[in-house]
Write a structure and sequence with these properties.
Elements lengths: L1 H31 L3 E5 L5 E4 L1 H7 L3 H4 L10 H16 L4 E8 L5 E13 L2 E11 L1 H30 L3 E6 L4 E4 L1 H7 L3 H4 L4 H4 L1 E4 L9 H8 L3 E2 L4 E4 L5 E12 L5 E10 L1 H15 L9 H17 L3 E9 L2 H8 L1 H18 L5 E6 L2 E9 L2 H14 L4 E3 L2 E3 L3 E8 L6 H17 L4 E4 L6 H19 L2 E10 L5 E12 L3 E3 L5 H6 L3 H21 L7 E4 L2 H4 L4 H12 L6 E6 H5 L2 H13 L3 E7 L6 H6 L4 E4 L1 H5 L9 H15 L3 E4 L5 H9 L4 E2 L10 H10 L3 H4 L1
Parallel strand pairs: 18-19, 21-23, 23-24, 24-25, 25-26, 26-27, 27-28
Antiparallel strand pairs: 1-2, 1-5, 3-4, 4-5, 6-7, 6-12, 8-10, 9-11, 10-11, 11-12, 13-15, 13-18, 14-15, 16-17, 20-21, 20-28, 21-22
The structure holds ligand C2E and magnesium ion (2 copies).
One magnesium ion (MG) binds next to loops.
Length: 721
């Protein structure tokens, strides 16, 4: 029995010793372990912790015991960890989590906690927990995460930027496949990103030459092989996926990796349609007429010079038309510029419709147009077109409720017959056009060698004068002459006016010379004579004071064999007394061919017709002829009168005026001072006892009606005071 008890005790002692050795081994092991270890009972209270655990948690052994082990868990993690822990131990489940300790010195440590039950058969002896310091891993993870965030952010930023910029961006890899395109590139190419990526660049970014539509070698490849930025050729067109075209401007650059090696290309491009359209618009404006949109003079000159070059090479002919609208000014003046402008547009349309598309219709400015028929077989072809144009203008233009009729005067010149360069062809068409005007407008004329430019201008006037005679476009104005002593009206000078329907009022200085040159002065003078006589008689018949009316007679009229006959006729026709008609002649008229002049003068004298010397002082002023020709009146030229000054000393002009006055008085002639414009001049003339005066200061030339009223009223007393 004893031996049994002793054996049992021994056995117990051996067991205890073994246990102690095992525990010592465990402690040693756990103390050298870098893993934190703590044991808890099955309620979760700590019964043991190793050195590593104490180091990791920053707690002493005592502090770890009981429920204290968790006091160092980071407050942000504690709640979660304890909940998980309780759940695990109650459910007998393995437990592991990641959590932080917050040590008393404020430092943080990330750990991984693993827990397992110490089970002996079905009995639980508590739990063993290991705690691993994972701070380094966590740090690495967070660095990585930050880097990823940063990368993501950078990528995102790049993406947003690329999608929001106005330029299209497209990238390709070394093999020439699309790797990326931004939203604008999607829009411009018509390829969605998802579909485009991976496709050959030439398929997604298809470009052709804008001028000939030939495919352009894709410069992205060039950027890659040459490793430099390449600009796309000007005038490139992008062919969209749907076949539409778009003008683009762009550049290509290689893309490098971190090591500087080329990995692909980036293409940046934008829609250049607007700027290209703007450039084209500017070019168009410089060469076209703003109002009608037709080519202007600049473009015409260019086309004409090209056409002449071609015609020369192919031995062909071409025709140039100069067109001028007849009486356009009349419409413009009476209906206003706005209607005038619309009419010009309508005219432009009609011209364009009347010729072939290959012909050029251009507006030269104003109401002048030019048409270039680039190729004709014979001049007759041009004649057909001219007839067609005139025919087309037979129909009215409907503008804002008006039916406007307008006709054309066309001048035609033909290359090479009428000129072999731009200037000659243009000039001669212009000359021919003047002739068309002369021939009564609404017709066309081919250039002839006997026409020339200055003659052309003259001929227009001449044509106009002829028409003016038949259409009654001449009028007479009457400028009164006054007696300086009494202020009474002593006569009137008839002054011709031409009211041209196209050019308005034309002063005699602008057409009398032409009328003299072409002989039209004779019928015109005849008309003046008859009209002045008729008018004077009409005033008389109306019971107004009788005064002589003076008419101006040119040399050619005066020397015309039927001059006196014409005078007789006018007097007879009107019933005007011959002494109520006065003839104004210049000195030069009398000086030439004095014998026949003398005869005509005598004829006038016997008829009691008055004669005056006009513009006296500017011609020969020879006293001898003044004695020979019995003239009634000397009209001192206005150039002397205008130079009269009111200085106390006599100037040359003052002297001449007073000398002429003296002369007239001695010869017993009336002296009329012309062109009196100021009070001083009038005063001076009075002091010199000049008989009469005429001038703007006293009265402007008046219409027949106004002159009649003046005759009735008498001169304003104030002027002669
Ligand atoms: P003229 O016979 O010496 O006529 C006078 C011109 O002087 C007129 O010009 C008249 O308007 C202008 N005059 C009158 N008072 C003044 C003034 O105070 N100051 C200025 N600066 N000028 C004044 P108009 O009507 O232009 O005629 C110019 C010339 O044309 C006339 O000079 C005459 O030589 C010629 N003429 C006019 N009518 C006829 C006509 O029926 N037949 C012919 N053959 N010649 C005419
Ligand atoms: Mg006169
Ligand atoms: Mg005069």
């Amino acid at each position: 029995m004893l031996q049994g008890v002793q054996g049992e005790l021994l056995a117990q002692q051996v067991g205890i010793a073994a246990l102690q050795a095992s525990e010592a081994r465990f402690r040693t092991m756990s103390d050298v372990s870098p893993l934190g270890v703590f044991l808890s009972d099955h309620d979760g209270a700590c019964i043991y912790s190793n050195a590593a655990y104490q180091k990791i948690s920053g707690l002493s052994l005592e502090e770890t015991l009981g429920t204290n082990w968790s006091s160092a868990i980071h407050p942000e993690d504690r709640q979660r960890v304890l909940e998980e822990w309780h759940q695990a131990i109650h459910g007998n489940m393995p437990f592991n989590t990641e959590m932080r300790f917050l040590r008393s010195d404020g430092s943080e440590v990330w750990t991984r906690l693993n827990s397992a039950a110490m089970v002996d058969g079905s009995t639980s002896h508590g739990y063993v927990q290991t705690v691993e310091d994972i701070s380094d891993r966590k740090l690495a993870e967070s660095v990585l995460m930050n880097a990823e965030d940063a990368l993501f952010e950078a990528k995102e930023r790049a993406q947003v930027t690329l999608d929001s910029i106005g330029d299209a961006v497209l990238t390709s890899d070394l093999q020439g496949n699309v790797t990326y395109l931004n939203r604008e590139a999607e829009r411009m190419t018509g390829w969605p990103r998802a579909e485009a990526i991976g496709r050959p660049l030439v398929e997604v970014f298809k470009i052709v030459d804008g001028t000939n539509h030939e495919p352009v070698i894709n410069p992205a490849q060039q950027a890659i092989t040459e490793n430099r930025t390449i600009d796309l050729a000007m005038n490139s067109l992008l062919i969209r996926r749907d076949g539409g075209e778009c003008a683009i401007e762009d550049s290509m650059a290689p893309i490098h990796n971190r090591h500087g090696a080329v990995t692909g290309a980036v293409i940046v491009f934008h829609d250049a349609s607007a700027s290209r359209a703007m450039t084209q618009q500017m070019a168009h404006l410089a060469q076209h007429d703003f109002l009608t949109g037709l080519p202007n003079r600049v473009l015409l000159t260019e086309r004409l010079s090209q056409a002449i070059g071609l015609a020369r090479r192919h031995r062909k002919q071409l025709a140039l038309f100069f067109l001028d609208l007849d009486y356009f000014k009349h419409i413009n003046d009476s209906l206003g510029h706005q209607i005038g402008d619309q009419l010009l547009r309508s005219v432009a349309d009609r011209l364009v419709d009347s010729v072939r598309a290959t012909d050029t219709v251009c507006r030269q400015g104003g109401d002048e147009f030019v048409i270039l028929l680039a190729e004709i077989e014979q001049p007759q072809d041009a004649a057909h077109i001219a007839q067609k144009l005139i025919g087309a203008f037979a129909l009215p233009h409907k503008i804002e409720g008006h039916e406007l009729h307008i006709t054309l005067s066309i001048g035609v010149s033909v290359y090479p017959d009428d000129g072999d360069d731009v200037d000659a062809v243009m000039k001669n068409a212009d000359v021919a056009m003047y002739h068309a005007k002369m021939y009564g407008r609404n017709n066309y004329q081919f250039f002839r060698a006997d026409m020339n430019a200055s003659a052309g201008q003259r001929l227009v006037v001449e044509g106009g004068l002829k028409r003016a005679l038949t259409q009654g476009e001449f009028h007479l104005f009457y400028q009164p002459q006054f007696n300086l002593a009494s202020g009474a009206i002593t006569g009137a000078e008839a002054l011709i006016r031409w009211e041209d329907p196209e050019h308005g009022a034309i002063a005699p200085d602008q057409f009398i010379t032409v009328a003299e040159e072409c002989g039209l002065i004779v019928p015109i003078g005849r008309w003046v004579l008859r009209e002045a006589c008729r008018q004077n008689r009409a005033w008389q018949d109306a019971g107004l004071a009788t005064v002589p009316v003076a008419i101006n007679v040119s040399a050619l009229e005066f020397r015309h064999p039927e001059f006196l006959e014409g005078v007789d006729q006018a007097l007879a026709e009107s019933g005007l007394a011959s002494d109520l008609l006065q003839i104004e002649l210049t000195e030069s008229v009398l000086m030439h061919d004095t014998e026949s002049s003398l005869a005509v003068l005598e004829g006038l004298k016997t008829r009691k017709i008055l004669v005056s010397i006009d513009d006296f002082g500017t011609g020969y002023s020879s006293l001898s002829y003044l004695k020979r020709f019995a003239v009634d009146t000397l009209k001192i030229d206005k150039s002397f009168v205008s130079d009269i000054t009111d200085v106390p000393v006599m100037t040359d002009d003052n002297t001449i005026v007073s000398a002429v006055i003296c002369l007239g008085k001695n010869l017993r002639q009336r002296v009329v001072a012309e062109g009196v414009e100021t009070d001083e001049q009038l005063a001076f003339l009075k002091t010199q006892s000049c008989d009469e005066a005429q001038g703007f200061h006293l009265s402007y030339p008046l219409t027949a009606d106004s002159f009649a009223s003046l005759l009735e009223r008498g001169a304003p007393a104030s002027t002669f005071g």
